[in-house]
Amino acid sequence: MMNTDPIADYLTRVRNAIKANHRVVEIPASNLKKEITKVLFEKGYIANYKFEDNGPQGTIKVALKYHPITKIPAIRSISRISKPGLRKYAGMDTMPRVLNGLGIAILSTSKGVMTDKEARTQNVGGEVLCYVY
């Protein structure tokens, strides 16, 4: 199966799993998707993750995070910003702030995949992949 935008597919699978109240979602792996998963885990938006090397590509198993009592998901919204048809880049001065700092923007920079706050401290810009809050 050929996919034109694998990052959008990743985000859509996570979004759909949250709406269906799934605990775990399986996603075809790539290096960029693995880095996005690590950022989501570090910032507390997912409970856990596991990389499995089965087949030529491998898979990422993501354990979604919900509030223990109210069952509200940790990820309220996850949306793609830079698309293959229209790339969005942000420099140091034009770095986006998601929900005035309450959410995160995930960027692909020359120093790797990181959040908008980390990019500001390291003084780098890059492609804005998605917003999460």
UniProtKB/TrEMBL annotation:
<comment type="subunit">
    <text>Part of the 30S ribosomal subunit. Contacts proteins S5 and S12.</text>
</comment>
<dbReference type="InterPro" id="IPR047863">
    <property type="entry name" value="Ribosomal_uS8_CS"/>
</dbReference>
<comment type="similarity">
    <text>Belongs to the universal ribosomal protein uS8 family.</text>
</comment>
<dbReference type="InterPro" id="IPR035987">
    <property type="entry name" value="Ribosomal_uS8_sf"/>
</dbReference>
<keyword id="KW-0689">Ribosomal protein</keyword>
<dbReference type="GO" id="GO:0005840">
    <property type="term" value="C:ribosome"/>
</dbReference>
<protein>
    <recommendedName>
        <fullName>Small ribosomal subunit protein uS8</fullName>
    </recommendedName>
</protein>
<keyword id="KW-0694">RNA-binding</keyword>
<dbReference type="InterPro" id="IPR000630">
    <property type="entry name" value="Ribosomal_uS8"/>
</dbReference>
<keyword id="KW-0687">Ribonucleoprotein</keyword>
<keyword id="KW-0699">rRNA-binding</keyword>
<comment type="function">
    <text>One of the primary rRNA binding proteins, it binds directly to 16S rRNA central domain where it helps coordinate assembly of the platform of the 30S subunit.</text>
</comment>
<dbReference type="Pfam" id="PF00410">
    <property type="entry name" value="Ribosomal_S8"/>
</dbReference>
